[in-house]
Design brief:
The model has no long low-confidence stretch (mean pLDDT about 95). The protein is about 40% helix and about 15% strand. It contains six helices and five strands.
């Protein structure tokens, strides 16, 4: 018998992220670097570079529903793993990152 490993977080698409943000009661954390952030960001996202998050996750990852986002969804998946390791339960990775967000025509602040 084989067992399938399950991620300790949920992978969601940008349409789901947009709906969750519109509904409220969720924190969006952008784990990109400041120079990437300056090129464009999702409104109301909070910048917490991945290395900052990894060095002190308990201080920067809030309780409650948290969506992690980066450029393409790779660094944010790592951030989700870190959040799960410290016991956070409602963790989401935005698949495709800000590139997928922009491709859908959703708003970006500069």
């Amino acid at each position: 018998m084989t067992s399938e490993l399950k991620d300790p977080f949920e992978r969601i698409d940008v349409d789901t992220v947009k709906a969750m943000l519109d509904k409220g009661d969720v924190t969006l954390i952008d784990v990109r670097e400041p120079q990437e952030w300056g090129q464009g960001r999702i409104p109301n996202a909070k910048l917490v570079p991945l290395m900052t998050l990894m060095s002190n996750p308990r201080e920067v990852v809030p309780e409650g529903h948290v969506i992690f986002q980066c450029a393409e969804g790779i660094r944010s998946a790592l951030a989700c793993e870190v959040a799960a390791a410290i016991g956070r339960k409602h963790i989401y990775n935005m698949e495709g990152g800000i590139k997928a967000w922009e491709a859908k025509g959703y708003p970006v602040e500069k």
